[in-house]
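Many introductory courses stop at the sequence. We go one step further.
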Amino acid sequence: MPGILLAIGYTALLLWCMRRIPFFARIPGLPMRWLGGILILKVLAGTAVWAIYTWVYTDRSTADIFKYFDDSAVMFDALRERPLDYFRMVLGVGNDTTWFTERYYMSMNNWFRQFESNLYNDAHTIIRFNAVVRIISFGEFHVHTVIAAFLSLTGMVGMYRAFVGFLKGRERALIIAVFLLPSVLFWASGVIKESLLFFGLGMVVHQVMRMIGGRITPLGIAVLVLCAVLLFFLKFYVLLSLVPALVLYAWCRRRPKYDPWALALVVYGCALLLVLSTPYLIPGLDILQVVAAKQQDFIGLVREMGSGSFVMPPRLEPDLLSFVKLAPYALYITLLGPLVHATPGLLGMFAAVENVGLLLFLVVCSIHRQRARNHHRDLLLALFLYVILLSLVIGWTSPVMGAVVRYRTPVLPFLMIWGLLLVDTERLFARWPRLRPYLSA
């Protein structure tokens, strides 16, 4: 009960602060009462994640929302006994020594992982996040849910702001696409990596789009750098999938007379050459090898722990030809896997239904697409290539449908926005006039 009361208090405080911060209070097409309602909805969704992993999946040692929270207590305890150790661990400065390993990390269950060949163990980021929030949470888990939901909401507001100018008259549809997709609402509201991921992703996109529009400020640059660093240490492949798309869109804006497909060929060709050159530029780093090893690590982890939604993938070899051959399979697993290989239980059913709705939405948008030349073709291309590249990486590495549903959450809002940019709403409303009050401002 004290934790619930404290969480309610923090929620009320955040709602009060949001009304006084222009970033939240002055949003085209999104009244503050709606935004406040979305925050409360996200807190409830994060609480639902907690409830499911408390009463349905009861093994606390394997639940992401608990295992990193529990490990953070070891780090936080250092604040009282050895404050300098705490700050070194939180900042990641001078903490890779035998002292820290024996004193702290060996007491954690997830700082070191058996199956881990990634460039960086992203579990460290969420452990550090929980260790910082413990300063104000007094160890009450529900406060962590409120903070995670608020950070996720902040990133989503940034994402909404980045695209609302392109979708005037379709603000309500954009609200659904960014904030209310079921899997995004659920997974990006709990005390897990996806909440921090959406914070970083949304703020990076927001700041880059502002800079492309000519609004460059020292604060914006600082926010961009910090959030890009967060993305790199949280889900580096999301950042690496996003960068070429942002570069392409910025280049298209600077060179509007050029064919965007030609510019895309140059940008993504250079990106591919850079990936293939990494073993020579940075000895010991081979991105293809890292991705292939990640797939095998995931398979090894699933075989050890068991999973009801495991789909054995073709083996990915660390060479370009293997990646190309498995590209269709990777796209199929990411975009259709939650429907074709639905996981057992209520969560799997919801994911399958959402997948059907998403497919129908894209079909409707394609049928009623703008017949004349689309003024947003550069942005459409950049979004499309981001969605494809990130979907490929997820499909190449993730053989578990339950994980795919989570990992593809940063794909879905952009896919929905792509559809909204593509569709001719007047043609759509002429066919289905009852949709107008639900999708337009």
